[in-house]
Known about the structure:
- The complex is a heterodimer.
- In chain A, 32% of the residues lie in helices and 0% in strands.
- By secondary structure, chain A is mostly helical.
- Chain A has 2 domains: 1-27 and 36-52, no CATH class; 70-156, Cytochrome c-like domain (Cytochrome Bc1 Complex, Chain D, domain 2), CATH 1.10.760.
- In chain A, helix 2 (70-78) packs across helix 4 and helix 3 crosses helix 4 (144-156).
- The longest helix of chain A has 19 residues, at 2-20.
- Chain A is globular and about 50 Å long.
- By secondary structure, chain B is mainly α.
- Chain B folds into 3 domains: 1-31, no CATH class; 41-93 and 192-294, Orthogonal Bundle (Cytochrome Bc1 Complex, Chain D, domain 2), CATH 1.10.760; 97-182, Cytochrome Bc1 Complex, Chain D, domain 2, CATH 1.10.760.
- Chain B is built from 12 helices and 4 strands.
- Chain B has helices at 2-27, 57-60, 63-68, 76-79, 97-115, 118-123, 150-162, 171-182, 196-210, 220-224, 262-272, 283-294, and strands spanning 139-141, 146-148, 251-253, 258-260.
- In chain B, strand 3 and strand 4 (258-260) form a beta hairpin.
- In chain B, helix 5 packs across helix 8, helix 7 crosses helix 8 and helix 9 crosses helix 12.
- Chain B is globular and about 50 Å long.
- The chains are: A mainly alpha, B mainly alpha.
Amino acid sequence: MKSIFEKGRAVALLLAAAALAGCAGQQAAGPAKASDFSEWPCLSSSLPCGKLATRKPVQQALAGPLNGDPARGKALANERSKGNCVACHLLQGAEQPGSKGPDLRSYGSWARSDAETYALVYDMRSRNPDTVMPPAGTNQILTDQELRDVVAFLQSSK
Amino acid sequence: MAEKHFSLSALALVALVVTANGQAADAEAYREFYPHVAIDPARGVAGGADAEFGATLQYWQDEQALEQNKGFIGQVDQEWKLNWKFMDLDRSDDMHPGYLALEKAEKLFKFWVKREPEFRACLGEGKTDLTGLAAGYPKYDPKLKKIMTVESRVEHCAQTALWENFRQGTPENNLISLYFKSLSATAPIKVDTNSPEIMASYKRGEKLFYTKVGQYNFSCASCHTSSGLLGQRFRGQVPTSPFADAAHFPTYRMNLGDIESLQQRFMRCNLQARTKGLPPGNPDYTDLEVFYTVLSNGYPVSVPSAR
């Protein structure tokens, strides 16, 4: 019975070493800069953030031509404090991609319009109310221009 | 005069309507909920066998299962099925960070109990043998008229018996809670699901588990149920089943180099989903802890552990 815990301990020591080396494995996907996020709804029944309304699903139209920069979009999609899309998706050039969302490495050949893509990334709840995908536009995770850049990156992924 | 009187009451009426509306708007602030899964609290940890929660119980329910599946350790797409239970090092005799933390905890406990024997009696609610008591937490305390967690009992007893302020989340509280809980190691968790106060708290905690909050609009369930991210890679991490999680807290957290309570872990998960974390001991986190611990009912307390 002892052996499994010995193996556990070996992993524990490895993890401890990793933590000492500064690569804190468990700190993925967090924001880059500390913030208290009290401007967003929280689980409290007494603090003001507990009373804040969740922003309702939005079906956002794309105004004018896309004008996005795919290279910037790629960086935004990868950056933890920005799109953080690779937390769930396989994207071209992604490091440590997640596995929950569909593989988007060849999204550009899906023949989806810019407008539809923009609307989905802006707020996926417009298509699926139970989605786990964060509403990047509605909840101001990305700005309008940043959304355009990310859409341009997806469309260029072939 | 009459006119003035009229306008004053009209003003009062307007004020009344505004307050009423304000309150109504407060109570009904738009909120979304992640799809609920039917959980039978009477089943305790056995719910970990359900597909909605990854159906992983068979891999970690006891030492034999862990031994059989130890090949999963270190494989990203398999390891999560062990629910980190191979890190419950209370069953190994070797020295590890969890034990080192426990040694320190025991010293601190003995220091205070020597100075103020009343501290022990307070923790035991009159009993001086604390063995097995922590396995019954969280519990409703009819004298204090409150749901008490191990941590809030320690805070309360430090105040009343020691005149010390060991607030929840402080190193002193975590150390003494760790020691108190270690005196129940291997005892099956038995939160009293016949208590109406506990079940009211469980229901509130269950609702919180599915409440979507924060900039990401995530609920606990978004990450810790199978229709969400459970068992899926979220960057490098793979969220695991909530069943039996409560058993190994407080735990020694490697990457923090410190002891972490269950509610401090809630805080970290909230922050990770860009949500304001609540201070340890907050009543809403206590409800969530009751919910989580009922999902551990029947599983042995596994302290000291490391994660």
